[in-house]
Amino acid sequence: MKNFLRLVTPSVLALTLISILMISCHQNKESGIKTAELQTPAMDKTVPPPPPPSNGNEKAALDQTELHSPLLKDERRKEGSTEPQAPVIDRKVIKTGDIRFKTSDLAQTRQTIVNAANTLNGYVSEESQSGYDKTSEVHLSVRVPAQNFDTLLSVISSNAEYFDSKNIHTQDVTEEYIDVAARLKTKKELENQYTTLLKKAQSIKEIMEVERELNNVRSEIESAEGRLRYLSSQVAFSTLNLTFYKSSSNLSGSPQGFWSRLGDGFLSGWQLLLNLIVGLASTWSLFLMGGVGFILFRRFRKRNNSND
Fold it and tell me: Are 90 and 146 in contact (CB under 8 A)?
């Protein structure tokens, strides 16, 4: 038994030492791996941002960034793109007015209107005066700059007793003005083309044909230019047609006095007598024919009596 223990004991000790050495080596290996992991920085799984662009690559880099950022793309579109705005159209409006009112003094009212027109850089384009029965009236056509039209209306309103009628009209001719201007531009371009052809024409026939067409185009150009001048004049100056009158008849409705009524009666009787005389004078041919007929009738009757 002792001999057996002597043989077994060295073997057990050797196996024990070998096992301890193997365990120690394994632990050192694991600790080395962990140490290496601690010393080596961990790699970021996210993609690093691209380096800042430089020189000519800025636009390409920004476009590439916009592919991954729709919000940035929308913001850039709003900032970089400017939507075309609708052109501002200068409206062409013709303003006219027709007014009729009563006044107590024709001369003073006329002078007030003329002075107001001159002050507002306008003028009187037409003037006429008429009378009928017991009423006298004056007609004026006043033209003033469009921006002073309302001011002239205010001046007239302050001097009128009351308005019999007052009508203000506005007419928008913007579309017509633009159309005529466009046609005029086209006609002028066509005139230049015909002028060039006329210089290149060689035969008399070609010259006559080109001149005929050129004359037609120039006639149309003159017509369009005249229309534009008329529209521009009507737009720049507004027209106000005024008719003011004074009546001597009693329009207030108050009863007339005795002497006024007596005077009116004598005037009416005298006017009636004059009308009668004029009427009789206009029938002189009837009196002449009646007198001739009466004389012939008496002669015929006298002859018959003598025969009997």
Answer: no
Residue 220 near residue 187 (C-beta atoms within 8 A): yes
Q: Enumerate the β-bridge partners of residue 101.
A: 163, 244
Q: DSSP class of residue 308? A: -
SS3 track for 154-169:
HHHHHHCCEEEEEEEE
- Return the axis-axis angle of helices 58-67 and 70-80, rounded to nearest 10°: 130
**194 vs 218: CA distance, rounded Å:** 10
Class of domain 90-249 (CATH, top level): alpha beta
Sequence ranges of the domains in the chain: 90-249
pLDDT in tens, 105-126: 888 989 999 999 999 999 999 9
**Residue 131, C-beta contacts closer than 8 angstroms, at least 6 positions apart:** 137
* Token code pair at residue 285: 């041919």
- Describe the strand order of the beta sheet including 93-102 as a list of residue ranges: 123-132, 135-145, 237-247, 93-102, 162-172
pLDDT digits (tens, 9 = 90+) for 72-110: 455 555 555 455 555 566 789 999 999 999 888 888 989
